[in-house]
Amino acid sequence: MAVYTDVNEGELGAFLKAYPVGDLLSYKGIAEGTENSNFLLHTTSGSYILTLYEKRVDKADLPFFLGLMGHLARKGISCPLPVTAHDGDVIGTLAGRPAVIITFLEGLSLRRPTSAHIGEVGKALAALHLAGADFPMTRPNALAIDGWRKLWSAARFRADEVEPGLAAEVDADFADFERNWPKDLPEGIIHADLFPDNVFFLGENLSGLIDFYFACNDHYAYDVATCLNAWCFEKDFSFNLTKGTALLAGYQSVRPLSGDEKAALPILARGSALRFMLTRLYDWLTVANGGLVMKRDPTEYIRRMRFHRAIKSPSEYGLT
Ligand SMILES: Nc1ncnc2c1ncn2[C@@H]1O[C@H](COP(=O)(O)OP(=O)(O)O)[C@@H](O)[C@H]1O
Ligand SMILES: N[C@@H](CCOP(=O)(O)O)C(=O)O
Known about the structure:
Blueprint lengths: L8 H8 L7 E6 L7 E7 L2 E7 L9 H13 L17 E3 L2 E7 L11 H18 L12 H11 L3 H4 L3 H15 L6 E4 L8 E4 L2 E5 L6 E4 H12 L9 H14 L4 H28 L12 H11 L11
Antiparallel strand pairs: 1-2, 2-3, 3-5, 4-5, 6-9, 7-8
Bound molecules: adenosine-5'-diphosphate and ligand LJ64HWYM.
Adenosine-5'-diphosphate binds next to loops.
């Protein structure tokens, strides 16, 4: 459930007067999502999404996230455009929270994407990387190795409750990553959370990308590795080579990967699997049920970490 802060009609109607969106006709909370409270608004000028930022988004990062969406939208990426208020501000305050209105994107996120859909995701990810290259702001990845270490320090002592032997397994991974994590790969703006719930389709066509609240500067190939994890594994945790091939071919049709990026895919995919395992594990162990964050199963990402550890060659992901 992703409406953590409620908003009443009177305060919303008054808030909207500051924006060029017309008058409120109706609104409702959106159940999907993890971090923030989202509402679908219908006004006399169309549909919008209202987001109230909850505790886990740092207000200081909002100009980066919102500026990036605007930049990408202006460069032809189908993503929400933040609406500027009459006074020139994008970020307002509603119900005691930082609040923003963004344009509504048509489309549905897919539960069972096909290889054809995943090929489109690869193309869109590469287009995002190219379009972000001249975005003037930067944001370091808060969930790179140092961030993982913080999460692990908080969760390690209870990790074996979730999976016996997990503490030793992850300790060994950290030792490996600290020695071997790639340093000199091409980097720029990455989405960093391009999971199926953040990509919309209309039929076979990709209609939009949402949720830029983990976007940051990091290796482009790390974003590709995250998509391999998020899109190319089946429910039984087997890797679907056809889907991997489609994702990588789609990506490379827009931005070819260098030899170094290809060679780094196994360690990047293992690191990305650890990153999502750790945020899930941290929430699993520390957030009360019914609390402010929707919990997701960390063991799904332990399976992926093990898969990547056994990879002998990046061709096993479907690189052609
Ligand atoms: N611009 C948009 N257009 C249409 N629906 C959106 C848009 N932004 C968000 N949504 C809806 O709100 C849900 C939650 O948004 P998301 O940004 O993923 O939230 P969170 O950051 O809390 O995870 C999405 O799954 C989608 O249903
Ligand atoms: N994609 C992450 C969780 C972040 O959720 P989102 O709703 O913000 O995309 C995961 O699967 O762990």
